[in-house]
Amino acid sequence: MRHVDFDPDQLSEKADQDWWRQWLSEAEAATAALILKWRASEPISADDFQSALWKALKVWLMEHVFHGKCAYCEIHLTGARQPGDAEHYRPKGEVRFVPDGRRRSIRASAYDEKGNSVDHPGYFWLAYHWRNLLPTCTMCNRAVKRNLFPTEDRHVFVIELTDDRLGELSEEPNETPIPFEAGSNGYLLPPMALDQHEAPQLLHPYRDDPSKHLRFGEGGVVVELSPQGESSIRVYKLDDNDLARERQKAQQRAWWQYQAAFQHAEANLNMTQDECHAFGWTFLTDWKDGREPFSAAGLDYVVYVKKAPEL
Ligand SMILES: [Zn+2]
């Protein structure tokens, strides 16, 4: 997993801007329909969701932002056998977590608009929020995660906001809190505000720098550097043996590319040791900018296992 810089407000191509304007307006209408249903006290079922909308975003993100890779494990998603899932970071239909010292997950509770403690209904108002949708492989989305969303603090459903706080939040693009009912001061929060209240324990590629939480070592293994790293390894199943083997192959490829360039520079280009290192790194550009599958594992191997000076 690695950090990904993405914000649709920063797109420079007109075709991309047009695509987003259209997608955001459809997402907004679909979100409004779900909230209307909820306000009418009707339960939201799987049939109420328009999966075509999040599938379209998944395809766009895979092509334009994630270099065809899973947002969590960096495996390459290809063709009919591994088309990738549109993963909801915050689950849309139910929220579960595993309490400390227990083995089985339970449903998360939250406060409703009347201040009553209820089973969290799922973050249905984020079903089409771009910050909540990521392209992932089937394994990361379904093997363990499903509706799990561990947090440090309590899960939030409807929350009361003061006018000051509401003003602050509304200044963020695409992050406006949604009034639960007209005239009420209970709101459904957008992703960034929820992050502040809930302190999620799962890493998110837009928000976090995964290199501060995860470290990849010999044989493609992954270890945690933080509690969020530990939860993410467990819930995204990043310690899967098959995945480790794939990462190991990528690590060997990264090291081979670096080393072959270094040795060529040393033997043929009359370079100093420092210049040979720098030359070696120029062959790892695709790893540094994330185009290679398992780029985080490949770079960690070169730097922390093989001890090549990091440039
Ligand atoms: Zn994955």
From TrEMBL:
Name of the protein in question: HNH nuclease domain-containing protein
Source organism: Candidatus Entotheonella gemina
